[in-house]
Design brief:
This protein has six helices and nine strands; from the N terminus they run E-H-E-H-E-H-E-H-E-H-E-E-H-E-E. It is of the alpha/beta class and 205 residues long. The protein folds into two domains: 102 residues, Formyl transferase, N-terminal domain (Rossmann fold), CATH 3.40.50; 98 residues, Rossmann fold. The protein is globular. Bound molecules: 5-O-phosphono-beta-D-ribofuranosylamine. The site of 5-O-phosphono-beta-D-ribofuranosylamine has 14 residues, from helix 1, strand 5 and helix 6.
């Protein structure tokens, strides 16, 4: 039976759709059990519904972090989720949530971590004068954009790049590596040694 994904978003949801495409095209053996947004008007929710997914909003505004995360855990449990994928989810998770899904939460970040964690990573890379940036899929631990790295892709920073043009090229790579990283984690064909995620065989191109 396919493993069940819970995808958390806050906005556009293009990574969610890239994962959905990978599932539809049998590049990823999984089922999207539920997609949840903490913002009621996230465009990704409308598109998700159009495509027939169970896409729900769970507004977080004004709620205490742990109380909100308890609601979220309940929703994910209802949908019997095996793995939680953060895809542009703009809210820091409580320790409670992270312990609840120990090593079963992934995130995608638009930089080569540990460089440029946090908001506006593409802007940070440009401002810093980095010649290369990219994206990272990692396990989520307490601590912003920390946790063992599963996969990364490198994207050159061009002289005439703006934060937007760089973000667009990075996004293409995000859409490629996130489904691959999810497939690896669902396969269980890896071990974690300290901070290192070591696949049992070569999976990534
Ligand atoms: C992506 O750049 C992702 O790396 C970051 O937030 C953005 C989300 O984009 N965490 P989308 O909602 O998946 O289109």
């Amino acid at each position: 039976m396919s493993k069940r994904l819970g995808i958390l978003i806050s906005g556009r949801g293009s990574n969610f759709l890239a994962i959905a495409d990978a599932v539809a095209q049998h590049r990823l053996d999984a089922e999207i059990a539920v997609v949840i947004s903490n913002h009621p008007d996230a465009p990704g929710i409308a598109v998700g519904r159009e495509r027939g997914f169970q896409a729900i909003t769970l507004p977080s505004k004004g709620l205490d972090r742990e109380a909100y995360d308890c609601q979220m855990i309940e929703e994910l449990r209802k949908s019997n989720v095996d793995l939680v994928c953060l895809a542009g989810y703009m809210r820091i998770l409580s320790g409670h949530f992270i312990r609840e899904f120990h090593q079963r939460i992934l995130n995608i970040h638009p930089s080569l971590l540990p460089a440029f964690p946090g908001l506006d990573a593409q802007h940070q890379a440009l401002d810093h004068g980095a010649k290369f940036s990219g994206c990272t899929v990692h396990f989520v631990e307490e601590g912003l954009d920390s946790g063992p790295i599963i996969s990364q892709a490198v994207v050159p920073v061009l002289e005439d790049d703006t934060a937007e043009s760089l973000a667009a090229r990075i996004l293409k790579e995000e859409h490629r590596i996130y489904p691959e990283a999810i497939a690896l984690v669902l396969s269980g064909q890896y071990r974690i040694e300290g901070r290192r995620v070591i696949p049992f065989r070569k999976i990534f191109a």
